[in-house]
Amino acid sequence: MYQYALFDLDGTLTDSKEGIVNSLIYAFEKLGDPVPDYDTLLKFIGPPMEVSFPLYCGYDRARTRLAVDTFRERYAPIGVYENTPAPGVVDMFRRLTERGVTLAVASSKPQGMCEQVCNRFGFTPYLRVIVGSSLAEDWDKARVIQETMARLGIGDAEKPVTVMVGDRKYDVEGAARRGLDCIGVEFFGYAEPGELQAAGAVRVVRTVPELEAAILED
Known about the structure:
Oligomer: single chain
Strand order of the largest sheet: 5-4-1-6-7-8
CATH architecture of the largest domain: 3-Layer(aba) Sandwich
């Protein structure tokens, strides 16, 4: 049984597709750039935007910063609320907390937006900490996980009983860099087929009950 569970947010606890896609279209159109096809837009869900714009659009650092800022013009006031929670998450959080599992969010989404989403969907009362990416620096997932571990006081002794939960390879790889297991989730299907397994997830689950059982398994 894991004693600490760190959760990604977009694509893991919530389906943020509508808000992200709409805000990406807004950004591309405002910048005067071609809007990528829908399948490419879906690939932006999960990884940091600072990774996705160069990877899928070939943007340099300056263009990426401009694109991210333009995306947030719409996403911060509107898109963040175009979002739905995975069914059963709050009940799972309640039961895990009752079993003594310490819960946290570790997301590449900016800190303030993480707090907005967690408050909106009733996650916050069950979370010891909510950690999002810094607006001042480009934090990769490993850096977000590191900060979450620091705030929870997780050291080497606690790593074997700590798990990251996420929906993309970036979560799995970031966890591995910090010496943690990662359970991959396929609630919404934004990862490429076999992506989570190939990245080294210790388990891949498709439902919230399966996730709860995996966290509590002895």
